[in-house]
Amino acid sequence: MIIAGIGRAAITSATDVGTLTIQLWRSLLRLRTALPIVGNRRRWRTSVRQMMAIGVSALPVVALMSFCLGFVASLQAAAELRRYGAIRYVVEFTAIAFTRELGALITAISVSGRSASAIAAEVSTMVVGQEVDALRVMGLDPIELTLVPKYVGALITIPCLTILSTLFGITAGYCFLAASIGMTARVFVRDALEAIMLRDVVLTLVKSVVFATIIVHVGYMEGLRVSGGPEAVGRGTTTAVVNATFLVILADLAATALFYVMGWSAAG
Questions:
Q1: Do 201 and 98 contact (CB within 8 A), yes or no?
Q2: What angle do CA 129, 134, 137 make, to 5 degrees?
Q3: pLDDT digits over 125-135, tens only?
Q4: Has residue 186 been placed in a domain?
Q5: Which residues, in sequence order, are CB contacts of 97 under 8 Å at separation 6+?
Q6: Which residue from 218, 251, 246 is spatially nearest to 123, judged by alpha carbons?
Q7: Separation CA 167–CA 188 (nearest Å)
Q8: Is residue 204 in a domain?
Q9: By CB neighbour count within 10 A (0-12 exposed, 13-18 middle, 19+ buried), where does 7 fall?
């Protein structure tokens, strides 16, 4: 029984990887049609609406989460560094932590909870209502019409949200230090800029693109899998959020480990 369960899990995982790979490749082939300005007019207008839904609507939540976590992280770091008279190093800790890890991860988890569920719910409702089958019957590609605009919207807005999330987290560190030791904004900005490396910013943006790909495609895949009545929509939505969040964290772990092994996370 144990071996059979492991085999079924392996087959399911391999099927998921194959489905996501094919889905990603087909969406990349049609990506240009949904790009703003240069793409099909109707498609890129849909992409702009997706940017509003995925990015702009998520900004308040991402900003609040980043600010609160940045304040808490600074508070905890200061509690330990105060023992050694090194509370000023809270600036470097907050700047590096949010630039390398927390900014992208907070954004991805927030968007995953909002957008992966929304995408899965929308697509699963179309599947239950046989709208996807109707598109195929009319000779239209469901991926081009329903997936690609969402993917373009996520690719553009999630890296922007990551930058804003990082800024809000670092700003929270400044608010704490200004209130606790009276640090001026000039000194804080100088120390933060000295700690942040351009390489860290680039790698974080690369991770945010990977996270955007995971969130959109997992949500879409889980939505297509739904079968049955309206109650299946809820199950598909829940599965999409859980799987997307898990894969985001797993991808972050893999990327961080890779950067560490290659020495990219080292200072200097």
A1: no
A2: 155
A3: 887 777 777 87
A4: yes
A5: 73, 169
A6: 218
A7: 13
A8: yes
A9: exposed
Whose CA is closest to 266, among 71, 256, 230? Answer: 256
Tokens 């630039």 belong to 99
Q: How many domains does the chain have?
A: 1
Range picked from 26-30, 118-122, 161-165, 199-203 for highest mean pLDDT? 161-165
pLDDT value of position 268: 47
Closest CA to 205 of 160, 261, 263: 160
**Cα–chain center distance at 161:** 9
Which structural domain range is residue 109 located in? 2-261
Assess if residue 266 is contained within a domain.
Answer: no
DSSP assignment string, 3-70 = HHHHHHHHHHHHHHHHHHHHHHHHHHHTGGGGSTTTS-HHHHHHHHHHHIIIIITTHHHHHHHHHHHH
Contact 228, 219 (CB under 8 A): no
Has residue 268 been placed in a domain?
A: no
